[in-house]
Amino acid sequence: MNCVIIGIAGGTGSGKSTFTNRLKDAFCDNIAVLYHDNYYKRQDGVPFEERKKMNYDHPEAFETELLLNQLAALRNGESVECPIYDYSKHNRSDKFVKVEPKKVILVEGILVFADERLRDMFDIKIFVEADADERILRRVIRDVKDRGRDIEGVVEQYLTTVKPMHYLYVEPTKPLADVIINSGMNEVAFQLVKTNIEKILNQG
Ligand SMILES: Nc1ncnc2c1ncn2[C@@H]1O[C@H](COP(=O)(O)OP(=O)(O)O)[C@@H](O)[C@H]1O
Ligand SMILES: O=c1ccn([C@@H]2O[C@H](COP(=O)(O)O)[C@@H](O)[C@H]2O)c(=O)[nH]1
């Protein structure tokens, strides 16, 4: 299948999911969306207290091979069963979501440009940018409200793994992007990307 794969990267709290989900809402079932976070490795044998302390911001935390295989299958016109991650359990859930092949596929995640094999699959690479203080403030609120965390835990995790990994693995991928956009709620950037996707979808 002739399709266009768009990678959307950026630090935690930058607004990647906000931007991606706005596009998903705009195009509904006409595009496919995959989230790298759903491909965090299964950790069934690791006790919860241990899982809480693990480094989720290193490329090795992900089963990227599965994402690569599923992207290749979608490109071949086959549907795939994507895993669904449960942040409150720090583990993959037992649920799956069926994703059908589409002409435009979005792939979102902090480290989607860090893996060369994945990066090479993207026709368009977008990096969502936001200042570190804004990102951590947003993350504190989101993780407490939506991901079952407490403030002390979010701060501890940010200082021990999230921040150092961001500067080691996420930030260095910014220059690899085709487009750097200023926040997930940037209306001009949203309209530019939306118009481009409309053009791709309308091509015969
Ligand atoms: N420009 C913005 N201004 C204020 N809040 C924002 C903005 N962008 C995103 N948020 C909020 O910040 C939190 C993190 O955004 P999210 O899109 O989940 O970031 P990411 O996927 O990059 O981690 C969410 O609760 C979201 O609603
Ligand atoms: O079990 C987990 C898995 C991931 N995380 C954190 O999630 C973010 C990535 O998601 P964003 O939506 O881009 O913020 C990453 O920084 C991990 O630290 C987690 O805390 N627990």
UniProtKB/TrEMBL annotation:
It holds the Pfam family PRK. Pathway: Pyrimidine metabolism; CTP biosynthesis via salvage pathway; CTP from cytidine: step 1/3; Pyrimidine metabolism; UMP biosynthesis via salvage pathway; UMP from uridine: step 1/1. PANTHER family: URIDINE KINASE. The lineage of its organism: Bacteria, Bacillati, Bacillota, Clostridia, Lachnospirales. Residues 5-184 form the Phosphoribulokinase/uridine kinase domain. SUPFAM superfamilies: P-loop containing nucleoside triphosphate hydrolases. Keywords: ATP-binding, Cytoplasm, Kinase, Nucleotide-binding, Transferase. Belongs to the uridine kinase family. This is Uridine kinase. It catalyses: cytidine + ATP = CMP + ADP + H(+); uridine + ATP = UMP + ADP + H(+). The keyword Transferase applies. NCBIfam families: PRK05480.1, udk. Its main location: cytoplasm. Its EC number is 2.7.1.48. It is an enzyme of class 2 (transferase). It comes from Lacrimispora defluvii. GO terms for molecular function: uridine kinase activity. The keyword Magnesium does not apply. Gene3D superfamilies: P-loop containing nucleotide triphosphate hydrolases. It is found in: Cytoplasm.
